[in-house]
Automatic annotation (TrEMBL):
Keywords: Endoplasmic reticulum, Membrane, Repeat, TPR repeat. It is found in: Endoplasmic reticulum membrane. TPR repeats lie at residues 156-189. This is ER membrane protein complex subunit 2. The lineage of its organism: Eukaryota, Metazoa, Ecdysozoa, Nematoda, Chromadorea. InterPro entries: EMC2-like, TPR-like_helical_dom_sf, TPR_EMC2, TPR_rpt. It comes from Panagrellus redivivus. SMART domains: TPR (SM00028). It is a peripheral membrane protein. The keyword Transferase does not apply.
Length: 293
């Protein structure tokens, strides 16, 4: 297959202008190409861009930050700051550049000013949380995220981030609570169902293991070939069977055995696989362990 290569430095003014506009409209992440087109073509014809210049400068600034071209980012930022000295949008770009340079304290101070000026802007708050995480201040990031979610309660991405932060602190109860808010907006995501099952399993205890099994079961209903969920069901059934009544124990062993049969079938269908023997031995070992519960 022949891959067509484009010399971005050889575009005409109109081609370069239209290309950047299309990428802006499509929200395409083409950072290196954007910087290249700017440096070699559009930067020579800034007056011909008229009012479109400011949108292009913003686009190039973000691309330059993303591709570690801090010299280009600074040049574009200086033009934007001159034109829009009081713009919060330009100030955010300044903070993003400071972040990229790992100047976290100054970036955080700038975001604090932006938040104070506009407390309803989610972008400023989320960037501040990212800085706190980068600085290793996880507890402060947790506090900030909780405050953020009091205002933006439907932000699924923020709930996931909060859950992950709690997990890093081994606070499984709060991690589970946060992730269950994720399920409110994604009730049919097998991936998220598996994740909450894993958190409940790690939390331990009879009630949490029962919840973990229910979540794993639901994840498998939605994605029958999810091997991690199938393994999860086996592990949960094995744990629960140790303290179950005879009737319940029989049911759990049957459920775990069905999951192991499905795993064996999946690995068999996979054909040639360098890890096939390892997978088969793992399934056999779990089958033996389950039968001895």
């Amino acid at each position: 297959m022949v891959v067509e290569t484009i010399d971005w430095t050889d575009l005409s003014f109109q081609e370069a202008r239209q290309t950047l506009k299309k990428w802006r409209d499509d929200h395409a992440r083409r950072s290196e190409e954007i910087v290249e087109i700017w440096e070699h073509v559009l930067s020579r014809y800034t007056s011909s861009l008229h009012d479109e210049l400011w949108a292009v400068l913003e686009q190039v600034t973000i691309a330059a930050i993303d591709s570690a071209r801090h010299d280009v980012a600074l040049q574009c930022l200086q033009k934007l700051m001159t034109q829009f000295p009081s713009s919060s949008r330009v100030a955010k770009l300044q903070a993003m550049r400071l972040e990229a340079l790992k100047n976290y304290d100054d970036a955080e101070a700038l975001y604090n000013k932006l938040i104070k000026a506009d407390e309803t802007n989610p972008g400023f708050r989320k960037r501040k949380v990212a800085i706190l995480i980068a600085k290793g201040e996880k507890l402060e990031a947790i506090r900030e995220l909780n405050e953020y979610l009091e205002i933006f309660i439907n932000d699924t991405e923020a709930w996931i981030e909060l859950s992950e932060l709690y997990l890093k602190e081994a606070d499984y109860a709060r991690a589970a609570f946060a992730f269950e808010d994720v399920l409110l907006s994604t009730p049919h995501s097998s991936l998220n169902l598996r994740r909450i099952a894993e958190i409940r399993y790690a939390q331990g205890g009879q009630d949490n293991l029962e919840l973990a099994k229910a979540y794993y079961d639901k994840a498998i209903q939605l994605n029958p070939d999810d091997t991690r969920s199938l393994f999860g069901v086996v592990l949960v059934c094995n744990q629960l069977a140790n303290k179950a009544s005879p009737a319940k124990k029989k049911e759990l062993i049957q459920t775990g055995t069905r999951a192991l049969d499905k795993l064996a079938s999946i690995y068999k269908k996979a054909g040639d696989n360098p890890k096939q023997d390892i997978h088969q031995r793992t399934v056999n070992a779990l089958r033996t362990q389950l039968s001895q519960s």
